[in-house]
Write a structure and sequence with these properties.
six-stranded antiparallel sheet, globular, six-stranded mixed sheet, mainly beta
């Protein structure tokens, strides 16, 4: 059963049976919002990019994004870049798989960001979300809807982190930021580490 998360909420990534999830998929979806003009409405293509930044405590260790599709250790993998969004039919436009069982012990958190590579603001995006899925069953565990648009071009969406019990948890962050790439978003990530 999926949990709709609000900004700042967190959820444990333990299965109902108490065992830990092994592979989770962070899915990102979006559509360009139609713009009204003199000759009706039109939709402009928007290229949002999902990235996953791997941290050892507060120190960046690796990153997975459209130009580096797999972490150096192979535990995090991006399925490929979508340049326009809006695939529809419940499919994610971009996905990042995290093999929690194989994330190196020194990695304590994986932060997921979204940035508008083409520079449009989130006011020009509709139906944007990120969701966490148990990749072995396809069950959606949690969903965070990006609502309200806004004048920003980036978003610190969520993070998965090691819990003191040794399992993993997820925190919905939903913090707006400015930037076209994950590098631009690094200062905005720091308060959430």
């Amino acid at each position: 059963m999926s949990v709709n998360l609000a900004k700042g909420q967190q959820v444990s990534l333990q299965k109902g049976s108490g065992e830990s999830l092994t592979v989770v998929r962070m899915g990102l979806g979006w559509k360009a919002a139609p713009k009204r003009g003199l000759f009706g409405s039109r939709t402009r293509q928007i290229d949002l990019d999902a990235s996953a930044l791997l941290y050892a405590e507060q120190t960046p260790s690796d990153v997975v994004f459209f130009q580096h599709l797999e972490s150096d250790d192979g535990s995090v993998r991006h399925t490929g870049d979508n340049l326009v969004g809006g695939t529809g039919a419940g499919e994610d436009d971009e996905s990042i798989l995290v093999d929690l069982a194989h994330v190196p012990a020194h990695i304590t958190q994986v932060v997921f960001t979204v940035s508008s590579y083409t520079g449009q603001t989130f006011a020009e995006v509709q139906n944007a979300y990120c969701r966490l899925v148990d990749d072995s069953t396809g069950l959606e565990l949690a969903r965070y809807e990006l609502a309200g648009g806004g004048p920003h071009t980036g978003q610190i969406m969520a993070k998965v982190f090691r819990e003191p019990s040794g399992g993993w948890g997820m925190l919905a962050i939903g913090a707006p930021a400015r930037g076209r790439t994950f590098q631009d978003l690094l200062p905005a990530i720091e308060p959430f580490l």
